[in-house]
Amino acid sequence: MIDTDDMSAIEKSIKTILTSIQEDPEREGLLDTPKRVAQSYQFLTSGYDTNLEEIVNGAIFQEGNKGMVIVQDIELYSLCEHHMLPFFGKACVAYIPDKKIIGLSKIPRIIDMYARRLQVQERLTDQISQALWQILNPKGVAVVIQAKHLCMMMRGVEKQNSFMTTSSVLGEFHDSQPTRMEFLELIQKKNQ
């Protein structure tokens, strides 16, 4: 949690930025902007204040299921660490249990924990898969993220229709091509 002194420092910095781009921070529409931006950053970087154990909170259950578990279309929003502009998209998470499953709502919470930090999509994808690997000790984990990056859409090359796909596969998803292909076929069927 960003403390009061840091919130004040962010507000002061935003006023400096406004002045530097030749805006008037005392203009009616901008009077509360520094405070709102500070509050936004507090929320958008709240992942630094959470940890995996708090999120999971004991929601791991003994279960004999050995079939693939897939959760798709999990919305995510993050800030690119290079330009502090948003990137957003959807994650698909799969795992093959080895006597343990996780409460369904915990998967999006894990994603949010890592997404609400300054990020690159490649690291975010790996952090999610490593977290599930760590807490479940499953037979395999697969994470695929597709996201649009405003740093590429609004500035630089300005390619509005581009998106990035990243994947991280561990265990059977990495070692077994038939398992990986089954996963890819299952997630493609949903998208058809």
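the 2nd protein, sequnce then structure:
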Amino acid sequence: MTEERSERDAARLAKLDELRSAGIEPYPARLQQPRTHTATEAIAAFVASESDGDDALPVSVCVAGRMMSRRLMGKVGFAHIDDGSAHLQVFVRRDTVGEETFELFKRLLDLGDFIAVCGEMMRTRTGEISVNAQSMQLLSKSLEPMPDKWHGVKDVETRYRRRYVDLMINPEVREVFVARARMVQAIREYLDGAGFIEVETPVLQPIYGGAAARPFTTYHNQLKQDLFLRISFELYLKRLLVGGLEKVYEIGRDFRNEGISFKHNPEFTQLEWYEAYADYHDVMRRVEDMLAHIARRLTGGTLITYRGHEIDLAPPWRRVTLRDAIIEYADLDYAQYPTAAELADAMRAKGHHPETTSNRGRLIDSLLSNYVEPNLIQPTFVLDYPIEISPLAKKTPDDPTSVERFEYFIAGMEMGNAFSELNDPLDQRERMEWMQQLYGAEDEERHPMDEDYLLAMSYGMPPNGGFGTGIDRLAMLFTDSATIRDVLLFPHLRSLERSDAAGDEEPQP
């Protein structure tokens, strides 16, 4: 701790002791007078009263918030408080509040303290709407000073580690998370209005599945068994279709033991839904309708801006097969190369650099990720994927090597995934067994056998369409945020010791 920091902390602790010695509780259990208005409400009430002209009645308020600034001018002073809704100026006159309260304001309060102020609304000589304080109460003494110029902090990681300070100082950061909450509310509004019901499925699962990802493993002491943090809701939600719930969705946490990047966090929020008697074409229509609904709720229209691109979310969106998209952007037709070796040779001949250990499905997926995805700025559905990377989807009628699957892309990012879901239990078992052979025991894309899920399917599952999308990536899109860390209140970071030793680098777009 620096000498300056030590003196600063000692000064605030000395004020704490002086407050208590004077009989002033620095952390009272309640307000002496109930809060009547937020800062925004107080300003609005005063503006409304001004419209009455000479007949205007005084507007009395009790407000509360964090003191963000203070200026003393002899027997008067000014401060700004922030309650999350707005900044509001407080005008403090010694003759009005009394000697004791003015001394409290002048000597013992610090920036960052929470205070409550009661008084009548007014305009100062400069025209700023203010509270003419008649009483003041300290609500919480801040022992840690606020940064002088938080915007000037070069270490972005510190903002993530101390998100509470980031939120305190930067109102635009708070606005991101308010917008995220409104976005989730709009999603629920849309799905509830379409007849879906929201459900909850287990976070701790004896068998993980529903996605190609490595899970986090934990151990239940009493049951003496390994459990997994879920990587997807899929297999449990589809069990509910078997039970007769025809339209279900869940918004919750998934956990994947994978890398961190500008669009990946090991713990993330996912939306999944399953709809009986729908196929992937029905799901496409629902997805584009839902995103247009969200945009209208957040912006009033369907045009948004993301990283300098104007994007139109109005339906209908472009639809293109995966094969045609790769031909267009990578100049290669993978249908002409039925084996992984042939496809890898063709890729190398075109100047691509495939991994030598990749199977055919992964090679195709790498072409999508490297050559197609960055070019899909406007909303686009890419459909019909290789069966090797889509073990839970129905085969396309005219091509048994591909399945009825789509991913949707916006602003050069993959945003979500959907299938016409496989509901043939015998076909599903064959595919799971095939995947066991196709991928090694340590391969994250090796789908585990889930006998209970296969049993559920054997009771009869209606044809259905399923969809999953990352809430965090949607929040990035609708708040024009460059990295997932900007839309997570508490993103995952290295421990400080490891960060100091190795850095906490984050791949950027």
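The first strand starts at residue 60 and ends at 73. The radius of gyration is 29 Å.
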